[in-house]
Amino acid sequence: MIRLTFSQMRRSIPRLVASSIAVLVATAFVTATLLGGNLITDITYRSVTASYGDADVLVTPETSALGAADAEALMALPEIDHAEGSVSLFGQIEVDGLNDSGNVQPVPAHGALDPFEVIAGALPGPGEVALSESSARRLGLGPAADQSWQVGGTATLSVQFYPADGASAEVDSEDSLEDVSEDLRVSGIVADPPAINSILSPVVVDRSLAEEWAALEQSGGDAPVEYTEVVVVAAPGVGDQAAAEAASVAMGDQANVRTVHEVAQQRAADFTGDTRMLVGFVLAFAAVAMFVAGLVIANTFQVLIAQRRHTLALLRCVGATRSQIRRSVLVEALTVGVLASIGGILLGLGLGQIALAVAGTQDLGIPIPAVVSPSLATILVPLLTGTLVTVIAGLAPAKAATAVAPISALRPAEVPALRRGGSTLRLVLALLLGIPGTLMLVGAVVLSSVSDSGDIMLLSLAVGVLGGMLSLAGVLVGAVFMVPAIIRVAGGLWARLAGRSRATVRLATANSARNPRRTSATSTALLIGVGLVVMVATGAASARATLENELLSYFPVDIAVSSPGPELSNAQLTAMSEVEGIEQIATRRAVTVEVDHGSESSLFEVFEVTDDLREVIRDPAFLPDLETGTVRMDQHDAEWLGVSDGESITFRVGSAEAPAADEATEVELQVDIDTSRSFPMMVSAQDMDTMAPDIAPAHAWLRIADGANELDVVRDVQDAVAEVSGGAAPWVSGEAAERAALDQVIETLLAVIIGLLGVAVVIAVIGVANTLSLSVIERRREHALLRAVGMTRGQLRGSLVVEGVLLAVVGTGLGTVAGLVYGWAGSSIVLSGVGDMHLVVPWGYVAACAAGAVIAGVLASVLPARSAAKAKPVAALAA
Question: How does it sit in the membrane (predicted)?
């Protein structure tokens, strides 16, 4: 029987290819997902450990600071070969008038702790410095077309610190800072670190200089340097756990001791937000693809059973038992599942390798492995899943194969009669699931709108998810009633518009509704895939519209530019205004004031409100029309100062702590509290003239022209002001960049998710083709009669095309409606506490799904229509 099974499979290869493709695609999806999770973990781990070289143990302060004595105590342990402290500080580097900032780090004293990759020259000694490749390029030391890295010149390194006997670091005043600088020889260029570790370029110097300046930064040079951490190399033959245990005993409660492996795992989890959650999220879409693939497989085997009806009857006549027939079908399903799953695994690994090859050519700032390294789970999980789904999908066709009667099956097959697709029990079950589920979904939306507390939101989310699952289950169970009815209505409308092809459309409509269960199963596969696509697109579009509206309300400034010095220069203002995409610019004056509250005093920034600023911002209500003698502040500042609405408050300007003017000035203003948002304190232009009449604008607000690319404009402004700034460049930020970044993140996630869900849609289209193929087999005598009475091959092909389009359009239409409803409901629940909801219809995705449905229906009908048109009427009638 096994030999006969494989013989039948060889004769049915074209038909098995369809189900194999469905399983192959779904299995490749699972493989790529698991492989991607492993790669994320591996890349993140490599990135984190890259900053520690080959260190084994990391010691961080817990109850008291770590110093040189602690490092020496650790080195005295027999389990430890070397220990040294880590210091880093922010510094400015200058070469021939060009400036850059970086993270000053010392050269490791032990080779195993060296994280730097030297690409030119050498690591520095006393009086030398090594720069990163990105910093070297910004400083004009990068390799030109005809020369290499410029090593050997002089660079000036400087850092700022608070002197030991000067102002406290608590005070926000640049005048209290001092700086120290030194001219150093550029000894070499090192590779940029992984982006995950630092956004600052490393500036590598001799350890003695780094520790000296770190002590200045920490205490003004009044105390020994304190280490941020101590890195440890285990003695030869000692494992990292043994070294960590010895170090832990020696340090006691003073420090936290962990292996570098443990630290890397923790930081990798922090960075990725727990890769397992990400993998689980994507595997949920893989489960959808597998479910749809199961529907396709079941339909495919129904096609095979219909094709082999006479063969199965003959086998029963010569003694084959029902169990043997069942085992034959299941062995066939098992074989298809194993082979297709293996193909899917190979495809998934191949796609992963291609992705690595492409990523390796990009400058991503993270270490990318050259080849994929699949784990055992990456192989076994897709193999077992694909095989299991295929076998389960084959159970119902296997049972149907055993129902073939030996005698009746030898007679010519009758044309299937129109019959009801569902029982009364199915209808009752659909209503019991759908009605309560819908009520729960509506109730969750209403509940979320009542209160924005976290507990209420979690409760409404839980109720909404449960209601959505129940209502969707009701739709799926009741699809056998809805789909044929909708097909009849849609086909009737199409027939009225079909003109001379009306008979063809009517015939196709009747044939589409002939087998309600099969038709509903096919449309359900499309409903699930399209519904998820539209739901995600609707949720993302609604979230984006809601969040953008809130961002415009709370942060209405497109671009804000702040000078690190006392004012923005005319050259900087001119450079900003000349950037393409900038529609309007307005300067803003601000002053630091001191306010007494109780026995303490605090510093605040106060800025003026002008008509020019109102014209620049997106939400004019953000800047009120303030009367002279009034200061507007938010609820947080009012509570901190202990003042209420309408009270008077005294601002002191020009004191030692807030040196904004030559002499201290006291101004009494009336408090106006706005509880709707957070913002710096605001005063009128007249009050600003009173507080600081000679202060120049150090800030500017810029409005971006509608339609311009926000991210490009922000970058252009950054480049423009940096080019005309002799010293430190102004800080450029703004809500436009954040809004654009949010849009980019949402669009990227949306594209990824749509791509993942698209796998399910592709598999569902394969199911449409299978259903039409089964329809052709069941109606071969009917088609022969139609051909005998004058129907042309073109008309027969047209009938099957109409069937395919009807199936695809109905499934897509139901999926679109379901996706919109669930997307709106989910957005209303999740975003209810954010602000005013904006429910959006993603017309682009809806139109794409509609167009795709028509194209899919036509393509899915090509092969079945060709098969039906090739059949000879006489041969089909004699079958």
Answer: Multi-pass membrane protein
Rg, Å, the chain Cα set = 36
Question: How far is residue 165's CA from residue 168's CA, in Å, rounded to a whole number?
Answer: 9
Question: Which residue would you say has higher pLDDT here, 90 or 585?
Answer: 585
**555: DSSP letter:** -
* Residue 111 CB coordination number (10 Å): 10
Residue 146, SS3 per DSSP = coil
Residue 436 has pLDDT above 70, yes or no: yes
Domain count, the chain: 3
- What string of DSSP letters covers 76-102? TSTTEEEEEEE--EEEEEEETTEEEEE
Q: How confident is the model at residue 397 (pLDDT cuts 50, 70, 90)?
A: confident
Residue 415: predicted pLDDT: 44
Q: Is residue 209 part of a domain?
A: yes
Contact in structure between 660 and 653 (CB atoms under 8 Å): yes
State the DSSP string of 305-342.
HHHTHHHHHHHHHTT--HHHHHHHHHHHHHHHHHHHHH
724 by DSSP, 3-state: which? Answer: helix
Host domain of residue 623: 559-735
- If you average pLDDT over residues 700-710, what whole number do you get? 87
Our CA angle for 321, 326, 328, nearest 5°, is 95
Q: Exposed/middle/buried for 694, CB within 10 Å: 0-12, 13-18, 19+?
A: exposed
What stretches of 713-752 adopt beta strand conformation (E)?
A: 731-733
691 lies in some domain: yes
CA distances from 313 to 316, 322, 407, 410, 787 (A): 5, 11, 7, 6, 28
Task: Band the pLDDT of 167: cuts 50, 70, 90.
Answer: very low
Both 587 and 672 in a single domain? yes
Q: E-assigned strands of 590-643?
A: 590-597, 600-609, 630-634
Does residue 595 contact residue 602 with C-beta atoms inside 8 Å? yes
Q: What is the pLDDT of residue 657?
A: 44
**Domain termination site, one of 226, 259, 276:** 226
| Other Cβ atoms closer than 10 A to 122 | 13
Same domain, 724 and 701: yes
The reply to whether 758 and 823 lie within a common domain is yes
Asked if 430 contacts 478 with a C-beta cutoff of 8 angstroms, the reply is yes
Q: Report the C-alpha gap between 546 and 553 in whole angstroms.
A: 11
For residue 237, the 8-state DSSP code is T
Whether 573 and 692 share a structural domain = yes
E strand or H helix at 511: helix 502-512
CA distances from 421 to 56, 85, 426, 728 (A): 67, 76, 10, 76
Contact 572, 562 (CB under 8 A): no
Can you give the pLDDT at residue 205?
A: 93
pLDDT class of 129 with cuts at 50, 70, 90: very high
Nearest Cα neighbor of 799 from 816, 813, 787 is 787
Whether residue 37 lies inside any domain: the answer is no
Asked whether the predicted pLDDT for residue 273 surpasses 50, the reply is no
Q: Does any domain span residue 384?
A: no
Report the alpha-carbon distance of residue 560 to residue 558 in Å, rounded: 7
In this prediction the pTM is 0.57
> In this structure, are 542 and 564 located in the same domain?
no
Quickly list H helices, 318-404. 322-360, 376-393, 395-402
Q: Which residue has the tokens 């030898």?
A: 410
Predicted pLDDT at 197:
47
Helix (H, G, I), strand (E, B) or coil at 699: strand
Q: Give me 702's structure tokens.
A: 């810029």
Q: Which residues contact 122 (CB under 8 A, 6 or more apart)?
A: 130, 187, 188
